[in-house]
């Protein structure tokens, strides 16, 4: 247990220290800034993650190749995100970069393993999963403290999954994510002093996608447990789907920018920014908790959880569709 606390402390402290000094450098040299606020949060989290992961490799027997491939592709995404923060990349350029990372991960066996789909079926499912989640977290980063708080909740759920399945790789990556995102929240909780940036949201989105892929869920008693990662990541997924639907309803291209985000619609109901992100945290907690429970129940209970989550998402859609976000 002491080794886990060492890794957690290392990730938390390194995240805080790195973000603090990177923020100072950003302000001093006027680089990686949006207005008066720096965009170094993602870089700080990424560097803290790599440092803590390196420490973990010395303390635990992790799957070296798998962990290094995940770290390498996520670092590449972080680097490309920094370029995007410095000089906005086109949608095509971002898509190609994300696709490259997805292909690398799939090539090294980091993919779904559903027997009835075969290699190519699993490869395509994994590809769309990676692309979808990477962009979902990027879209989610619209309010101070929102994306990092969601990462903290989701990674905590995966930590429980890792402990329950005795998966040391999932445990360690989740633990580092919990600590590093918590360290960033010190600077990002409203009012934010540091932003995540596109580098951070893309890095965290890809890392969340990878984490979900290397965890184990299903058992012979509950095939619905295969849907556990969809539930755990339910809020980012639902948020992205609703955003696309809201834009299509308005005859807008889904990739165009708009204020039709779930959080902004909740904020338009009269809630303060802090109350809005707390509501989003609660929604995420409900989805994530259902995802964890889904791995521990029988088929009948699992089906009930899935149906309840679907109905809740439908009700949420009809409640939000008519709300116009504040201009």
Features:
327 residues; mainly alpha; 2 domains; two-stranded antiparallel ribbon; 13 helices; 2 strands
Strand element count: 2
Instruction: Provide the helix percentage.
Output: over 70%
Tell me the overall shape: globular
Number of domains: 2
**Strand arrangement across the biggest beta sheet:** 1-2
SSE class = mainly alpha
Order of helical and strand elements: HEEHHHHHHHHHHHH
Low-pLDDT regions: none
Count of alpha/pi helices: 13
Q: How far apart are the first and last residues' alpha carbons, in Å?
A: 50 Å
Q: How much β-strand is present in the residues?
A: under 5%
Mean pLDDT: 90
Query: Quick one: biggest sheet?
Result: 2 strands, antiparallel
Question: Over the alpha carbons, how many angstroms does the gyration radius reach?
Answer: 19 Å
Walkthrough of the structure:
Helix content is 73%, strand content 1%. The protein is an all-alpha fold. It folds into 2 domains: 1-215, no CATH class; 217-327, no CATH class. It has a two-stranded antiparallel ribbon with strand order 1-2. The model has no long low-confidence stretch (mean pLDDT 90).
What is the strand and helix layout of this fold?
Layout: H1 2-29, E1 33-34, E2 37-38, H2 41-59, H3 64-86, H4 91-107, H5 118-140, H6 146-164, H7 168-188, H8 197-214, H9 228-232, H10 234-249, H11 262-268, H12 273-294, H13 299-320
Antiparallel strand pairs: 1-2
Helix pairs in contact: 1-2, 1-7, 2-3, 2-7, 2-8, 3-4, 3-8, 4-5, 5-8, 5-10, 6-7, 6-8, 6-12, 11-12, 12-13
The gist of it:
The chain is mostly helical and 327 residues long. Helix content is 73%, strand content 1%.
